[in-house]
């Protein structure tokens, strides 16, 4: 069966919706589905490294390298031997000539022929290049960087979240790939679990709601069919956390019945198989351990939180979003915190958010559904005397800047930090009309809210020096354009030793639907 | 040879529905399991309910915690027909097996997983068994067998076993059940990839 873009688009036009002819919707084989996907704008690296390469969890002497062998990326099962030996190499140059480490790792069908290679013995604060070889083929070359040690004068990193495939192309990831950053922090909703959405979208999911391990593998592979995502992975090391859509909307990691636990395990395993995640030590698959503390020299302590695996149901008097063990770990970290910027990678909004004055919380899936624990944790932050706290957040598909207070209902409660909630990569926000109406209402209802902007898509660049934290909101011109240009909408700063953010004078006149400090 | 220590819940404290703080061969990492006798009655699995043919006297349950987890690290054989040399030549296959179940139509469940790791603890292969949904055991109290087989990847040196019991909904009893957990290795004439 030979499919070409013209025929597919003609069929789409006749059907009135692109998703009608999107791969697999007509019972195509995996190979045909891939051909159709590519005809409609998806693309993949040459087989078997179709999904690209990645690195993650950079430490001073180590990074994790990742790839997955998937000759037919949209196939539930790969036509590969049960075990495939994969050779890897790390070098000081992009031609991979000055080799500093190399080896062989087994790719097992039981883990989707993914490989995770923790490379050790590297030097701090250095760029390295890496590549894989298997089945007589070579992967693309990726670039990574180790964390520095000692005194560090600057760290620059990107934060991305919420990348619904059907809502647009990944121009934001194209931008991230081109940024001069030390690492990328992904804040979750890397995939979405539901079926095709239909309507006027540039592309769509290729299968119904995903439920099984095979389903989730294909869904991850579909998302990696956007070249910009693979490019961003290959360009920088990533840290990762997740939110709900890696499994299912608004789920709690605990308390579900056996059918849900089967699904959760499948989703978690597929996530691991597709991410440059370091998993070892006390955890065990299919329950990867996400939360961790990482340092970027003496400048930054990055606390990565997992707000899904251990949470209880929402709105319980004794509910938990962290789980007992993670909360205890976080509390220990507060006591041992060094003199550095303290950044929490937080998938879902920490700050209180009422929809209008006198109204209720907008979403209790976020920390607003875990009031007692939020107050307890933030009071501990205050009592510990922790300074220079910046929380970076995803999920909301819009940009917010909030003061963090132990008690959001008490305006005399001290400001102890700033939360930057970022625009999404693609996932749809509210309408411009909704934002225009509700921005001021949310501002009036939440005295700690400094800024709201919901009409754009992109990512944040956080630029950190010993004296100042600067968050640049980078936005793309058009989600429908895979090569849309990136510009800076505005920049907020936090001065070291002074809690609270302020907007850069040069961008304070930019469009927004709410500003507290005019 | 079964590499799982006390995979049949027969060793150490237990015998009734009271949770125990320690389990022979296992590290309790969350909650507290109960090692319940098949003769306890009260709706728990009995010798007459579906379960392993040679079930001994006790089985694992989740105790009274919403989530109970046990971990066991198994060192793979150093020598012999399933030793390191054979593993590194892709000549060893594993079979993970477990009897897993729950109570009547409830969706409490037990999951048994085996993660093969290299000498540094990096996962190389994974087998996940269960949890068994109520419908898979015809909404009947009891345990059903689940197995998984595969090739032990080269450079595998240990296996981390994870046994997790999850409670669904309310109530206090975590009625995920498990028994007859096993991990066996066999030599085969496999070809290197």
UniProtKB/TrEMBL annotation, chain A:
Domain Phospholipase D N-terminal intervals: 51-146
SUPFAM superfamilies, per the entry: Metallo-dependent phosphatases
Organism of origin: Streptomyces zagrosensis
Signal peptide positions on this chain: 1-26
Known EC number: 3.1.3.1
Protein name (record): Alkaline phosphatase D
Keywords: Hydrolase, Signal
Pfam families, per the entry: PhoD, PhoD_N
InterPro entries referenced in this protein's UniProt entry, alphabetically: Metallo-depent_PP-like, PhoD-like_MPP, PhoD-like_sf, PhoD_N, Phospholipid_Metab_Enz, TAT_signal, TAT_signal_bac_arc
Molecular function terms, GO-annotated: alkaline phosphatase activity
Domain PhoD-like phosphatase metallophosphatase, residue spans: 157-472
Top-level taxon of origin: Bacteria
UniProtKB/TrEMBL annotation, chain B:
UniProt protein name: Uncharacterized protein
Domain of life: Bacteria
Annotated source species: Streptomyces zagrosensis
């Amino acid at each position: 069966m030979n499919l070409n873009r013209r025929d597919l688009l003609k069929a789409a036009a006749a059907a009135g919706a692109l998703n009608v002819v999107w791969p697999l919707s007509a019972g195509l084989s995996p190979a045909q589905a891939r051909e159709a996907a590519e005809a409609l704008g998806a693309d993949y690296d040459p087989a078997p490294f179709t999904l690209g390469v990645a690195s993650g969890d950079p430490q001073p002497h180590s990074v994790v390298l990742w790839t997955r062998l998937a000759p037919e990326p949209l196939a539930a099962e790969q036509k590969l031997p049960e075990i495939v030996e994969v050779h890897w190499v790390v070098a000081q140059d992009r031609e991979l000539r000055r080799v500093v480490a190399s080896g062989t790792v087994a790719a097992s069908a039981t883990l989707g022929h993914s490989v995770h290679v923790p490379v050790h013995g590297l030097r701090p604060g250095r760029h390295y290049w890496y590549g894989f070889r298997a089945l007589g083929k070579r992967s693309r070359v990726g670039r990574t960087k180790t964390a520095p040690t000692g005194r560090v004068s600057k760290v620059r990193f990107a934060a991305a979240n919420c990348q619904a495939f059907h809502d647009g192309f990944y121009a934001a990831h194209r931008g991230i790939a081109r940024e001069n950053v030390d690492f990328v922090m992904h804040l979750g909703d890397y995939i979405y679990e539901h079926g095709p959405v239909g309507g006027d979208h540039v592309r769509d999911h290729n299968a119904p709601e995903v439920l099984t391990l095979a389903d989730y593998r294909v869904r991850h592979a579909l998302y990696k069919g956007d070249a910009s995502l693979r490019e961003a992975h290959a360009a920088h090391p990533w840290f990762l956390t997740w939110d709900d859509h890696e499994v299912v909307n608004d789920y709690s990691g605990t308390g579900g019945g056996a059918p849900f636990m089967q699904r959760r395990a499948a989703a978690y395993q597929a996530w691991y198989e597709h991410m440059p995640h370091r998993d070892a030590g006390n955890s065990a698959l299919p329950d990867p351990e996400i939360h961790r503390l990482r340092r970027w020299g003496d400048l930054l302590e990055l606390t990565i939180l997992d707000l899904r695996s251990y949470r209880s149901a929402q709105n319980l008097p004794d509910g938990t979003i962290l789980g007992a063990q993670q909360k205890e770990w976080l509390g220990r970290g507060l006591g041992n915190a060094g003199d550095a910027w303290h950044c929490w990678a937080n998938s879902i909004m920490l700050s209180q958010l009422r929809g209008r004055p006198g109204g209720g919380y907008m979403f209790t899936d976020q920390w607003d559904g875990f009031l007692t624990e939020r107050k307890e944790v933030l009071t501990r932050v205050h009592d510990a005397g922790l300074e220079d706290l910046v929380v970076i957040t995803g999920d909301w598909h819009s940009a917010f800047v909030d003061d963090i207070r132990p008690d959001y209902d008490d305006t005399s409660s001290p400001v102890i930090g700033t939360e930057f909630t970022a625009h999404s990569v693609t996932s749809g926000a509210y309408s411009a009309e909704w934002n225009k109406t509700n921005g001021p209402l949310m501002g009036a209802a939440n005295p700690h809210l400094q800024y709201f902007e919901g009409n754009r898509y992109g990512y944040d660049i956080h630029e950190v020096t010993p004296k100042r934290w600067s968050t640049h909101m980078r936005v793309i011109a058009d989600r429908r354009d895979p090569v849309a240009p990136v510009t800076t909408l505005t920049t907020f700063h936090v001065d070291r030793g002074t809690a609270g953010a302020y907007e850069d004078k040069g961008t304070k006149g930019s469009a927004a639907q709410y500003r507290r400090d005019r | 040879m079964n590499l799982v220590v006390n995979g049949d819940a027969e060793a150490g404290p237990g015998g009734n529905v009271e949770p125990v703080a320690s389990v022979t061969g296992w590290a309790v990492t969350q909650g507290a399991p109960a090692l319940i006798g098949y003769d306890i009655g009260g709706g728990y699995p009995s010798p007459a309910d579906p379960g392993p043919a040679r079930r001994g006297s006790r089985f694992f349950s989740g105790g009274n915690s919403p989530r109970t987890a046990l971990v066991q690290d198994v060192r793979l054989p150093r020598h012999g027909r399933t030793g390191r040399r054979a593993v590194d030549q892709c000549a060893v296959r594993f079979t993970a097996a477990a009897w897993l179940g729950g109570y009547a139509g409830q969706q409490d469940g037990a999951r048994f997983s085996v993660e093969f790791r290299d000498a540094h603890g990096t996962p190389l292969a994974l087998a996940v068994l269960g949890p068994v949904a109520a419908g898979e055991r015809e909404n009947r109290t009891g345990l059903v067998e689940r197995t998984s087989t595969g090739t032990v990847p080269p450079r595998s040196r240990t296996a981390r076993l994870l046994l997790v019991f999850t409670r669904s909904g309310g109530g206090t009893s975590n009625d995920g059940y498990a028994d007859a957990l096993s991990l066996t290795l066999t030599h085969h004439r496999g070809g290197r990839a």
